[in-house]
């Protein structure tokens, strides 16, 4: 059998950016339109061990790479501000982190940058960090970047409007500066979700 290692991964980001939804897509290949915020509650799943603690949920999922298997131990934290001070419990000793923002919400990128800075200051020195812009499905069918329209009337693109408020370019430039992996995802359609976790798994050094 291939060598297998456990990797602790923490998800951080503003409330409602889709952290739990990304985990649900990765672990169960599922999506819920009205997912409840992560807080203290408790649940159980038959196939994947799920335990919800105060301010975070814990799940595991394996990722098969060509030469090894990575077993992710995932801490999905609550994004609500009142839980922010508990985050160090979850990122302590983490080998990897997903810092998530919502591409339709500029404040969520600001918050993501704060988490990145905190991780760089306080987490393990070799931590692999991925910046993830979620809700890519809301960028519209052609996935065009929003240009600021000077006209009063809003541009329409068929039935679906483009709600993107943060350009790929802007976030990518920031990620490159800070040495982060960078992806845009949709937990709703599943686009790039597996890719993010695989990229993290690949970036974890073999020990
Ligand atoms: P907290 O637990 O409060 O920190 O929030 P969270 O980051 O875990 O967000 P959650 O996964 O609960 O998602 C919040 C809302 O956004 C839910 O209604 C989801 O259905 C929705 N959502 C999550 N991901 C996506 C996505 O990729 N696209 C769209 N359109 N909606 C999404
Ligand atoms: Mg959540």
UniProtKB/TrEMBL annotation:
<dbReference type="GO" id="GO:0005525">
    <property type="term" value="F:GTP binding"/>
</dbReference>
<keyword id="KW-0547">Nucleotide-binding</keyword>
<protein>
    <submittedName>
        <fullName>Ras family protein</fullName>
    </submittedName>
</protein>
<feature type="compositionally biased region" description="Acidic residues">
    <location>
        <begin position="150"/>
        <end position="159"/>
    </location>
</feature>
<dbReference type="GO" id="GO:0003924">
    <property type="term" value="F:GTPase activity"/>
</dbReference>
<feature type="region of interest" description="Disordered">
    <location>
        <begin position="140"/>
        <end position="164"/>
    </location>
</feature>
